[in-house]
Design goal:
Blueprint (H helix, E strand, L loop, with lengths): L4 E2 L5 E4 L5 E8 L3 E7 L2 E6 L2 E7 L3 E2 L6 H5 L11 E12 L3 E10 L2 E15 L5 E12 L18 E15 L1
Antiparallel strand pairs: 1-8, 2-5, 2-12, 3-4, 3-12, 4-7, 5-6, 6-8, 8-9, 9-10, 10-11, 11-12
Length: 175
């Protein structure tokens, strides 16, 4: 992070759902990354506080039949905890566009502090409206949030890594 910091925009910015995604990546079989995303998300930047909500029942993966297992108690337990939520408590934007966002991430009703890092940009969009963009990611140990399902590989090791990368690509429009 550079030593000169930009100001976080004031006012209210709402998500542009067409140009925003929220997803995850986790190593599968110890070999490759498996990715998924939530199709229904809300986010806003209001007076310097970034908030976001992903609706668990909107989860989408390349394996449609997997959705039922991800919604079940083994993973997100969507019936009891239908959302994944984030609320920032500090945003640091470097003059080079690098950003660090500290906040509280809640999954399955369990909240932990995380720091997401990435890039930030702002300007005027094609419609002339002010826009702000965050491309950020953080890593969590899914066990910290009660996502404990596991299967052993035939040759040893785990089918699914404990380390999960959470990615948010947000375009927010000033209201």
């Amino acid at each position: 992070m550079s030593t000169t910091l930009q100001q976080v925009p004031t006012g209210t910015y709402a998500i542009d759902p067409i140009h925003s995604t929220f997803g995850f990546a986790v190593k599968h079989n110890g070999i490759s990354l498996f990715r998924g995303q939530f199709e229904k998300v809300d986010a806003s930047l209001e007076d310097g506080v970034l908030t976001g909500t992903a609706y668990v029942d909107s989860i989408n993966t390349p394996i449609p039949d997997l959705k039922g297992h991800l919604l079940a108690p083994d993973f997100f337990d969507a019936e009891q905890t239908p959302t994944v939520e984030f609320r920032s408590n500090e945003i640091r934007i470097g003059d080079d566009g690098n950003v660090e966002v500290d906040g509280e991430l809640t999954i399955r009703g369990v909240t932990h502090t995380v720091t997401a890092r990435g890039n930030y940009a702002s300007g005027l969009g094609i419609s002339g409206a002010e826009v702000a963009g965050f491309d950020i990611e953080t890593r969590i140990d899914r066990r910290d949030y009660g996502l404990n399902w596991q299967a052993p590989l035939p040759s040893g090791g785990d089918a699914l890594a404990w380390d999960v990368r959470i990615e948010a690509h947000l375009e927010l429009v000033r209201q």
